Fold:
Amino acid sequence: MRRLRSLIAVTGWLLAALTLNALAQSAAPTANAADAASAAAAAATANAKPMAANAVQIARGEYLARAGDCIACHTVPSQQMFGGGRPMETPFGTLYTPNISSDKTYGIGAWSADEFYRMLHEGKSRDGTLLYPAMPFASYTRVTRADSDSIYAYLMSTQAVHQPNRAHTLRFPYNQRSLLLGWRALFFRAGEFKPDPKQSVEWNRGAYLVQGLGHCTMCHTEINALGGNSASKEFQGGLIPLQNWYAPSLTSNKEAGLGDWSIDDIVDLLHAGVSNRGAVYGPMAEVVYDSFQYLTEDDVRAVAVYLKSLPGHSNEVDQSPRSQVVTEESNRLAPLGQKIYEAQCAVCHATQGQGKLPHFPPLANNQSIQMNSAVNPIRMVLNGGYAPGTIKNPMPYGMPPFAQSLSDEEVAAVVTYIRTAWGNHGAPVSVKEVNALRSAPLF
Ligand code: HEC
Ligand code: HEC
Ligand code: HEC
Structure:
């Protein structure tokens, strides 16, 4: 299995930092008081002894840590588990994930279960320091106390990694954690998941996993101008800032989202990494590789059931009429694109884009390549990729990169073709867009 990319979903806190400076100043006094109060409350309970962990609880915690994908961010690939130090690159500098192993000096070995819960629930470190939302506590706050205690027991059982944390190298003013007060005031509400008694047990389990440990909104919801996930556009898809991958809508919109997918298709995609509707790639391949493949079939199905219940919205697909320039460009590129497709792609993806299941994904009626943003198909053609090796699909097939053999014009042509042929409703792409993505980091 090749792991091409570091999956690091950088939330919009950086953008927030840009715009929220002023807001933070005004929000500071009240938020400070609240923070001080809860820090004092936490200090009062900090001396409580960690609960005795038994093997069942540790195993449960390991499973939940998988569901939360803690390993992806807190481990440098091929180095010691939970030792931290994985860089999260941003235009404002670099964050290095902390050591969360059981080491008492450098990890969280000296933390109590209460302190760990407060971190997950309120986004605060042991000493009360506000955490950057690059740590997805805005989702993890949904996690129950019992589950938090299990994850804690599991982390305490892992090998201590005696490795100091690396300081973030964020530039001023982004290194000022006080800016986070403004972000929190706008975008963060602490609160455990509350089951909806009108829904089935299965639906509630799926909702709990998706909204909480799965932190799916971190990528699948657009980041708004203030750097938060817009609640009104939840799960409607979004471009992941800096990574240049587009996470498609998960709603039931038929064209943009999962409206047309069966529960089994969703389960296959999340559990095996390949499905009749497409394969996972880019950052989603890493989510499946590190996290989803280890979940039980029942849990993956619960997630699919919950996703299928998310209402779609008519504005998810760009319905505006194409400008004449766009239409002309499309007419010019499509014939060249078709030629390239037939010569280079049809061998795997078949002449009508129907793919060769399950190993070569279909391109016809494949939402993930028709979105308003064309970054996904452009990057796939430039860089190629492998579906993740999973328990259900241990020998994934790969796609070769075409960056060397095709010019920008040729890539634009073939991507325009696959986005518009066979009833696909994507817009054509320009030579410029392709050129810009040639230098996108290969995560
Ligand atoms: C998308 C990446 C990402 C994921 C997933 C993630 N973390 Fe984090 N985590 C971070 C970053 C970045 C920080 C540092 C934030 C800061 O410095 O403000 C952090 C901070 C922490 C801290 C605070 C450590 C300290 O010394 O203050 C703990 C504990 C922690 N994470 C545990 C977890 C657990 C448990 C999970 C899984 C349930 C998890 N993290 C998943 C990125 C992530
Ligand atoms: C690190 C960012 C990230 C996270 C976290 C993430 N996804 Fe994704 N997801 C993506 C990207 C990017 C794609 C597009 C590539 C692909 O289709 O594989 C995607 C694709 C998908 C698809 C296929 C959609 C389609 O139309 O083809 C599904 C279903 C999905 N994700 C579900 C989830 C669920 C459920 C979660 C939470 C448990 C989740 N994702 C968490 C980034 C992410
Ligand atoms: C040798 C077989 C092969 C060839 C040739 C090939 N592909 Fe692929 N393609 C794949 C495989 C396998 C995947 C799944 C990769 C992954 O999941 O990372 C894939 C994935 C894709 C995707 C993402 C869709 C999805 O749901 O996974 C796009 C877009 C794509 N190919 C376009 C093309 C185009 C355009 C060409 C020709 C320029 C091409 N491919 C040539 C095998 C191939």
